[in-house]
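Sanity check record (used in CI):
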Amino acid sequence: MCAESNDTTKILMGLSGVIRSTRMTLVLGAPGSGKSTFLRVLAGKLDPSLKFEGKVTYKVEAKSSAPEHLSAYVSQHDLHHAEMTVRETINFSSNMLGTSNEFGMAVCFLCHLLTQNQNACFCKMHALDEVYLHDGLGFCNPGEMLVGRARCFFMDDVSTGLDSSTTYEIMTFLRQMAHIMGLTIVISLLQPSIETLALFDDIILLCEGQIIYHGPRRHAVGFFRTIGFTCPSRKNVADFLQEVTLKTEQKQYWTGDKSQYKYHSIEDFIKCFRAYSVPQIVEDNQCTENGSKQAVRAGDSFIISKWEIFKVCLSREVLLLKKNYPVHIFKVIQIMFLAFVVGTLFFRSGMNQDTVLDGVKYLGALFMGVAVINFNCTIELGMVTKRLPIFYKQRELLELPGWALVCSVFLTSLPVSLMESGLWTFSTYYAIGYAPSAIRLFQQLLALLATHQMSLGLYRLVATVGRTPIVSNSLGAQVLVFSFIFGGFIISKDNLQSWLSWGYWASPFTYALNAVTLNEFLDMRWAKVFYFKNSKTLGEAILMLRGLLNEWQWYWTCIGILFGFTLVFNILSVLALHFLKSPHKREVNIKSQDRQNKEYNDQAVVNVNASIGQSLPFQPLTLVFKNINYSVELPKGMRKHGVTESRLQLLRDVSGSFRPGVLTALMGITGAGKTTLLDVLAGRKTGGYIEGVISICGYPNKYETVSRITGYCEQTDIHSPYLTVYESLKFSASLRLPSVVKSHQRDMYVEEVMDLVELTGLRNAIVGIPGATGLSAEQRKRLTIAVELVASPSIMFLDEPTTGLDARAAAIVMRTVRKMVNTGHTVVCTIHQPSIQIFESFDELLLMKSGGQLIYSGSLGPLSRDLIKYFEAVPGVPKIKDGQNPAAWVLDISSHAMQYMINVDYAEIYYNSNLYKENMAMINELSKPKTNHEDLHLPSKYWPGFKEQCIACIWKQHLSYRKNSELNVFRFINTFATSIVFGIVFWQTGSTIKVEQDVFNILGIGYGSALFLGFVNCTSLLPVVAAERAVSYREMNSGMYSSMAFIIAQVAAEIPYMVIQPLIFSAIVYPMVGFQLAVKKFFLFVLYMILIFMDYTLYGMMAVALTPTAEIATGLSLTIFVVWNFFSGFIVTVKAMPVWWRWMYWACPTAWTLYGLVSSQLGDHKELIRVLGQPDQPVITFLQEYLGLENGYLPLVTALHFVLSALFCFVFCVGIKYLRFQKR
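Expected output for ABC transporter G family member 34:
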């Protein structure tokens, strides 16, 4: 029994049984029945947070958890490195499992399957090594585990997304492995076809975590027959087994007197099964106990050594290093650009070594070098966070240890660190004019190399602890703030409170800055006699003035400490990878049978009395397409493999029509071009070359029109993750239904749709992140369909609407679709694995073969007779067997192997047939406009007005932000933490101004305030905006709202944060640092904090709009933030900047904020301060002559802030409107 440790929710209850070797067992059950948990229990991969009671015995060895070498669990989630090929992925798994790919049959089988996948068509032209995982090869999961030495395999829904023909071939292969190699294979499937079901030896039927039947497949129907239930002749046995336990479906299978029928509950079936005598299985010679013991002993000797594990991981990291070259090219360009900026900003012609102020200028250049090296490593945050889900999977299934991954990553990062540190050092050393010594040059390189490694280790640790993009970015930014503040540059160590000295020595930045400054200022050219405190040279005086170390032995100490930090950070990363679990854990969703029965009763009432969309206005429309061709550009690298064509043809002369009241199925083997055709017809393609004619009711198709009158259910279920199911549907209905529909009608229709697709029980459930939190895959699929149904479209495209659903849920969905068709809607569905009942619910079929050619277009006929008659007339085509699913049969005979075997070209036969001529005659007739039908004319581009769009979008974004607890919690934790750290570090600094260092400290307050709070917020915001942009692509493609409405809503959602967070920061920091308690000065402090916060926030949103991914947006943002850091006026004052760079000071928002903060606080101070090497002078004079902060520019810098924010908003708008990074 398994139960959650906190709520004691029972998932599995009292399961007992024997799963024998050399047999393949199918686990059936509706989603929520406990299938995945059951398989994990058998494989010994149960979540430790779940309580387990009982015993699982493998062969003759009994353990509470599975021996690693005996069992393997195959997850339903496809988590792989997208950069790696299938062969590389399989090889890594094989090496980790200690087989050296001896069981390479899995690879060969995958290669065979790949040649049938049009999405992976390059396999036909390339070596297998060049077929990448992001082509949708979901069946790579079984291959990863099959190459191991396990004897028992437990596979969870491995057929999701595959057509029935491909699923059948996979199961045939697995059956052969089980029988030949004596393996034990247990697989759960959602909708197995009749042919696939026949491959299994045994069946386990689960319902509410209990076994209703466990025994030979051929006796399953007989067991229910003894109770009084019979499977109809044309009913899929798998569907029958799952439906016979449902109250609403059970009665139709009762064979006795209907008046004597009584509902049989789950408990009744369990009692009958316990009393049922399952026929004994005669074991063959391969399954003897002696053979079992031998298999166990053989497995024990194959344990991969730690050294081998390390070599395998290292080889993979080297491979990934090579394939991630675009990232490294970007980092090289970034560091070279920043080196150019710094080199020209501190150009050697303007650098002297005569005074303390000259030394301060060099100090600023050295600080920038350390800062750039550190900032350039922040990309490690995103890269590690992105890899963590894959690591967690491999840690569980392949026993991948964290130390092997960290050590491999560390070693492969060494050449990268050397390259980046070397590029920076050799690009800036001579340009700036550092100490003219080769030894000093390489010593600076060593210090920066140590800094780079330390930074990589630090951000690697932050990513492994944070584990999610929002948390990792927030923690990383907070660590960066801490390191910089305590690093000794923003505020001198001597000015820190004595009890805060630990922060100075704990900051890694301290040792990096001290190492590079010691290397520079203890050179002979800084040996000019200068007495200050205990110093005797100018170089020592500069170091002491800034509170830095001034003895040479500290250089090597700092280098050693930096490498020590690197070691500690990597060790802590190993511990985090070992002990911390994946942050995303799906909630268990178990319904009681009584609750299900109540919902099904409600469903039955709705099915009888409701016709979806009957009361909502829509116009029946006919869609006609003629001679459609679609092709895409082939990569230039294909030519080296002998490919001469410049384009790949995906659709070839496809013609057809979709009519009102006709439900059309679009079928074909995997990769035949079904989704491609739907994308073309729905106007969703963003690239490629489209030829042919598409018309609606005889008039040319217009994209603006088709997006309003059509609904498109995509394969990928993309929704706002923090809305509830009801809120998602309400938002869609409010923007997609005509304005004539009243609000109460709209709400009633939403409720009706929720009932029809069985979402009422999930009304208040958060949608969540796919594969991580919230709704399950089948619940998410039903939501996708419901979101389109609430629009009541005239034409409905559904791309694989039943994928990921069990037979019952698929039947519900298709019943709903059928109701839409009966009311005059035009509906077309692509479908992979339909049951006989679902397949024969369609009126017509468009069948495609690989290469995008049509091989059948016509009616199915009663019991699919028209389809069967057409293909059986083709010479050599095998006849359909009695009881065989026509859908599975037609996919089987249209496969590559069958066409090659019988030597026919179905496309040529179709184009020469009378059926084709009849279809073309009908197409030509429907292509003519009817006399009583006018071209579609919609008065506006969107159903609601712009105001209503904005209101709806703001409502949605408000809910999304309010419910995103992760973002809100870390935002305000960061705000409070940054505020308190600033207040403590700069405690009462602004209350006393006696020397120039006091002014620099106040300048540091302004610099830190201008830079860090907005930076932290921006980095945490980037993944959120990127996720919302992905959702907006789907919604704007559906004609829900304009890009401007989305932009206004996105900005409006951020306005409260733009005000509240700076207010919190100001309320804490202002009194703690000791600024004058005057209303005007406090108001100006708050004003400039809000303005810079607004600049950072809007810039982050703009960066997302201009880049395809959040990772690239982060890299671009960091580059710009570093440039803003350079020209803020703190590290190098405006008067010290070269003439050619001073314009940048006036274009930098951090400079405006720093000017506004310092001028508003010190602009009226006239007391004298002591300036080293110069006579005493008033504060205002020092600000003007040294810092260049002259009075009178406050209105200008305030206006510039508003202008820049408006510019960021404008670019954000342009990017969202015109830059679509969703490629189809």
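The first helix runs from residue 35 to 43. If this sentence no longer matches the regenerated tokens, the check is flagged for review.
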